[in-house]
Amino acid sequence: MTNTDEKIEQQEKDLNEEYNVFLKHLQAEKEDTSNFAKTLFGIVIVFCAIVLVLLISSENKELIVNTFGEDSLITKVLLIMPKSSANKQRVSFALPFAQKRFNVLLAGVDANDSASDPWIGARTDTLIILNIDPKSKSINAISVPRDSKVYLPGDYGIQKINSAHAIGGIDMTKKTLEKTLGIKIHHYIMVHDLAVAKIVDAIGGVPIYVEKNMYYNDYSGNLHVNLTKGLNVLDGQNAVGYLRFRKDGLGDIGRTQRQQFFLKAFLEKLQSPQAIAKLPEILDAVSTYVKTDMPFYEISQMAGIAKNIDSDRIEFATLPGAPNKHGYISYWILDPEKTQEMINKMIYRDRYVDNNKLYNIGIRYTVTNEEAANNLKAAVEELGYNVNCYGPSKLPHSQFIAHDASVSNDFLNWLKRKSPELKNMQFVYNPDKTYCTSSDITILLAGE
Fold first, then answer.
1. Which CATH number covers residue 155?
2. Could you give the CA distance from residue 24 to residue 43 in angstroms, rounded to a whole number?
3. How many domains does the chain fold into?
4. What is the C-alpha to C-alpha distance for residues 335 and 327, in angstroms, rounded to an integer?
5. 146/269 same-domain check
6. How far is 30 from 22, CA to CA, in rounded Å?
7. How confident is the model at residue 277 (pLDDT cuts 50, 70, 90)?
8. Dihedral of alpha carbons 303, 307, 311, 313, sign
9. Which residue, of 35, 53, 84, is where some domain finishes?
10. pLDDT of residue 93
11. Distance in angstroms between the alpha carbons of the first and the last residue of the chain
């Protein structure tokens, strides 16, 4: 073989290697695009499914026509479906392989300095573990304070839980929570601040009772809060400010409570006709500022569950602990025993039934609710329960707070049938006793 032949053969090998490298890059780009498309498609489908279910069940002809147009095929199908199913027994959508409970991490991230990637290096201002039970169509939600002191995987040592995402992304956040709490997190949904702002604006705002004047400016973090005490309809920017504000005596725990108040009000507003009509704007925000690893069939299942969930039946809790300061760093130190009890009750759904127990019940109320408090006190005492704590107090929101693990949402719903004053109560499990130190249950009747 001559030198010329050897050179030609080497050039052919080099070209083949370059072509193979090109094919690998092309395949990788194709897979990235495919994964993104699947995620985006799934997210779009879940919102469409929820909207279609609400439209069908509402049987509101005017709303359907205004949303999709009088002569569209979708309008004709939606108007026919309720009539054709009127005489049939209503059945719930369920898959035989999807009846097991599963955990979804809802992570809200703040803004970062990246113009190209809104997720990279961002911290998680909101962490809520959702335990979803398809069989009972119920949700238990545990808020994780962002200052919770944890050990991060690898060589990162002790950190606040909110730094896990900034260091190692959502995978590190999931692994840290799984190891800390001894649970399995099956999927995640990440929501950027900008998604919250855009969706809230699209649905016409979210009504919230703001418990105090809130004023704070953080120019480096692009956070500006200026809210007055009382009932407010929060637009997108103010909703983000309300969710992120923590410059008060309660700090991160106060913010965690506000996130729970907001989530309940947001879910209620999302089911309104105004929200349905704004579907294109909602989808635009979701496609850019929401990420999830959930496969399509589980997203569609969540849509089926969502249509049947009463927001009053969601159980809320916050990981119990106490504030602690190490130098200039503030931590939330989790209480191991109370945390484990909470995980058993909220995630594993352990039942602590004690049918013979007569609970001690505390009732605190704002001055405008004194008559309602008197009626409630008389009703629970007639049922044989002891009201051992009673009196006026300054309260931000009405809540039914269970301090004893045997107290369930089913018990609250039973009490609601006996006392109308408990209507629309938010169920909270909190082993710490703040308002009434010797009560098994604390009922807060709030208002102006």
1. 3.40.630.190
2. 29
3. 3
4. 21
5. yes
6. 12
7. confident
8. negative
9. 84
10. 37
11. 97
Measured CA to CA, the distance from residue 411 to residue 428 in angstroms comes to 13
User: Residue 278: pLDDT above 90?
Assistant: no
Same structural domain, 174 and 42: no
Q: How many CB atoms lie within 10 A of CB 8?
A: 12
Span of 22-26, 68-72, 153-157 with lowest mean pLDDT:
22-26
SS (H, E, C) 36-78: HHHHHHHHHHHHHHHHHHHHHHHCCHHHHHHHHCCCCHHHHHH
Residue whose entry in the numeric block shows the structure tokens 């949700």: 139
Domain with residue 405: its CATH number is 3.30.70.2390
The answer to whether the CB of 257 falls within 8 A of the CB of 250 is yes
Contact between 174 and 161 (Cβ < 8 Å): no
| Tokens linked to 343 | 């995980």
Whether residues 65 and 185 fall in one domain: no
CA distance 269 to 243: 17
Q: What is the pLDDT of residues 211-230, one digit of tens each?
A: 888 888 876 666 788 899 88
> pLDDT tens digits for 53-74?
444 444 455 555 555 555 554 4
Has residue 79 been placed in a domain?
A: yes
Domain that holds residue 42: 14-84
Domain identity same for 288 and 413: no
Whether residues 170 and 302 fall in one domain: yes
Domain boundary among 35, 64, 84: 84
- Residue 231: CB atoms within 10 Å: 10
97: pLDDT confidence band, cut at 50, 70 and 90?
very low
Q: How far apart are CA 263 and CA 434, in angstroms?
A: 23
- Residue 394's contacts (CB-CB under 8 Å, 6 or more residues apart) are 366
In this structure, the answer to whether residues 102 and 161 fall within a common structural domain is yes
Strand pairing partners for 407? none
Answer whether residue 70 is part of any domain: yes
pTM strictly above 0.70: yes
- The DSSP call for residue 386 is E
Judge if 128 and 185 occupy the same domain: yes
Structural domain contains residue 8: no
Q: Nearest Cα to 264, choosing from 139, 179, 125, 392?
A: 139
| CA atoms of 94 and 85, how far apart (whole Å) | 18
Residues 253/145, Cβ–Cβ less than 8 Å: yes
